[in-house]
Amino acid sequence: MHATPVDALDVEAAIEHWRAHGYARLGPVLDAARLTELRDRADAIMRGEVVVPGLFFQHDARTGRYEDLEHGKGWEGPSLAYRKIEKLERDDVFRRLVDEPRYAPLVRAAYPGSAGATVYRSILMSKPAGGGTPLPWHQDGGQFWGLDREPVCQLWTALDDAPEDGGCVEVLPGSHRGGLATPLGGVVPEALVAASDADAHAVELPVRAGEALLIHNHVWHRSARSLTGAQRRAFSVCYLDAATRCRRRKGAPRTFFTAFADAPF
Ligand SMILES: O=C(O)CCC(=O)C(=O)O
């Protein structure tokens, strides 16, 4: 039996599309066994059956409104309605996906000349069965991220189906070429959203469980509430050029987890 070749993804085509449009569809990456393993692990972590020190939890807003999300509360007891779990590179099961060998050539191509890659964040983003919370147009970078250079590349892997009405990712193609909408980064101000007519030009990216997307950090992207009644979980890893340094001055600067340490980069 042959192992899946690590170059099974068409890296060149994906990178070309990502450069031009700010995203690329990568197709299926996870098989059924790995999906089950990751979903079971996500449930066990949310229920507190598996405890991984140092994870960051955010529960979904009970109202389903982004403005009502609470910050800084951490794990609030067993619940399948957590919206976000960060630092999953600390977990053995999720770390295997952070280090997915088929992702390494994409990250290498996204950071030409880099000697390696690190992880800014690895997060489970969930729309619980009740529908979850809409995530507004945003970019992942800017002063808020506290880095000495901009990150450009994230791999988003669906753990459940994410159809059009099920909280799929939406992008504004090409918007990454305009750079950051504000120096701070993050949510794009409503006036800029209106001025660029972003809602009318949004492109939905529905995927089946196990499929992955390569997303440019600066492409405007968002996701709506899910209307399917089923959970929509995805694992998103933002990779950095290993030379990237934390510029924060409050406390010790962050150091970043090294990705693909066992694979040739
Ligand atoms: O999973 C989602 O709904 C969107 C994720 C996202 O926007 C991000 O990771 O920056």
Short précis:
With 265 residues, this protein is an alpha+beta fold. Helix content is 19%, strand content 25%.
Summarize the topology.
Elements: H1 11-21, E1 23-28, H2 32-47, E2 56-59, E3 82-86, H3 92-98, H4 104-110, E4 117-127, E5 135-139, E6 153-158, E7 169-171, E8 186-187, H5 190-195, H6 198-201, E9 203-205, E10 211-216, E11 221-223, E12 232-241, E13 257-259
Antiparallel strand pairs: 1-10, 2-3, 3-4, 4-12, 4-13, 5-8, 5-11, 6-10, 6-12, 7-9, 7-11
Bound molecules: 2-oxoglutaric acid.
Low-pLDDT segments = 1-7
Protein structure class:
alpha+beta
Overall geometric form: globular
Rg value? 18 Å
> How many E-type strands?
13
CATH topology: Jelly Rolls
**What's the number of helices?**
6
Known CATH architecture: Sandwich
State which percent range the strand residues make up: 25-35%
CATH-wise, what's the superfamily? Answer: q2cbj1_9rhob like domain
Overall pLDDT, averaged? 94
Bound molecules: 2-oxoglutaric acid
Sheet with the most strands, sense and barrel status: 8 strands, antiparallel
